[in-house]
Amino acid sequence: MRTFSQNNNYKRGTWKGLKLSTGQRSADFTCPDCGQLAALTHHTIDWKGGVNPSVVCPNNGCKFHEYILLEGWHDK
Ligand SMILES: [Zn+2]
């Protein structure tokens, strides 16, 4: 389990809030290993910020694959 802090500047290992066209909340995250930006729109995020299923970096050259927690998610 890796904890991601909230950040609006796409720093590595952070997340940024996203609002879907359906009105649902989601998030973008930046890979802590390679800096790749990706969306968590195909994941579910529980009220504590726990993301399911585990997150795989979409960058082919990167091996990041972990369960992540979005720190601060429940404060919004
Ligand atoms: Zn990566």
Provide a descriptive summary of the structure in words.
The chain has 76 residues and is mainly β. It has one domain. The chain is 0% helix and 41% strand. It contains no helices and 9 strands. It has strands at residues 2-6, 14-19, 25-30, 37-39, 44-45, 51-52, 55-56, 65-66, 68-70. The strands form 3 sheets. A 5-stranded mixed sheet has the order 4-3-2-1-9, with no helix packed on it. Strand 7 (55-56) and strand 8 form a beta hairpin. The chain is globular and about 35 Å long. The two termini are 22 Å apart. The mean pLDDT is 95. The protein binds zinc ion. Zinc ion binds at residues 31, 33-34, 36, 57, 59, 62, 64. Residues 31, 33-34, 36, 57, 59, 62, 64 line the site of zinc ion.
Please tag this protein with its features:
76 residues, mainly beta, 5-stranded mixed beta sheet, two-stranded antiparallel sheet, 9 strands, globular, binds zinc ion
